[in-house]
Amino acid sequence: MAHQEEELTEPQARDFQDLCERRRNGEPIAYILGSAWFYGREFFVNNAVLIPRPQTEHLMDEALRFIRGAMRVLDVGTGCGAIACTIAAATTALVDATDISPAAIETANENARRLGVAERCRFHIGDLAEPLGNRRFDLVIANLPYIPTRDLPKAPDPTSFEPRAALDGGLDGLVVYRRFLPKLPSLVNDGAEVLLEAAPPTIFQLAEAVRSTFPTFRISVGKDYSGLERFVKASAAGDRPAPAAA
Q: How many CB atoms lie within 10 A of CB 17?
């Protein structure tokens, strides 16, 4: 429409029709284009990773408000690396990130390379925090699967094309978080902060679980762009940790 003086070649026309057919079947635009935007940056994505969501950007706001200097940050369930790479690009923090999917870690490494933050992002293949040994962090962020199994979308819903392992939160949507929470106290430094994304129907249940895990922390619930409860913030009493030595 923008260039009506030009004619598509037959191969171009066939490619365009193929793309239209993929979209008609429900495939997300981000997978068709191979990219998605998050917090003002473009990320390479494919069907091995969850597509970054705008509702996660308020969680990112909280993270960037907290970080100062070369703090140690952990991103659990990194997917395409959107959270980890954004933090590394916007701060001088040192970021570790994990994912159980080797294909997701490969995608995250590619995004770190494209954004020029590979030197401050280390990606690890493994379940939750298992690859990290005894390391501790000043900020822990997790965006784990939180959709109840019965509510998983079906085709042609675009979300049904995303990896099930990144969506399926078990019977009530919190099964993966329940496995992760007992590990959290051994991961955080004094004065640390924890940010966990979930869905509005389960967010207060998750908040109570976090309160039981960290009885001395301040627990609050944050909202997304739509005004829906989207993430739990747990803040240690007292001052923030000092930045790590360079």
A: 10
Q: Could you tell me which CATH number the domain at 10-235 has?
A: 3.40.50.150
Query: Nearest-CA neighbor of 159 among 40, 55, 31, 36?
Result: 31
* Rounded Cα distance, 176 and 169, in Å: 6
Q: Provide DSSP, 20-48.
A: HHHHHTT--HHHHHTEEEETTEEEE--TT
- Helix 82-90, helix 102-114: angle, nearest 10: 30
pLDDT of residue 73: 98
pLDDT tens digits, residue range 126-151?
999 999 999 999 999 999 999 999 99
pLDDT at 246 > cutoff 50: no
Q: Both tokens of residue 162?
A: 């995303």
**pTM of the complete model:** 0.91
Calculate what percentage of the chain has a pLDDT beyond 90.
90
**If we measure between CA atoms, which residue out of 111, 120, 110 comes closest to residue 82?**
111
Domain positions in the chain are 10-235
Rounded to 5 degrees, what angle do the CA atoms 122, 125, 128 make? 95
List Cβ neighbours of 210 (8 Å cut-off, separation of 6 or more): 181, 194, 196, 217, 219, 232, 234
Length of the chain counted residue by residue: 246
> Which two structure tokens, joined as six digits, stand for 93?
């923090």
Strand partners, 222: 231
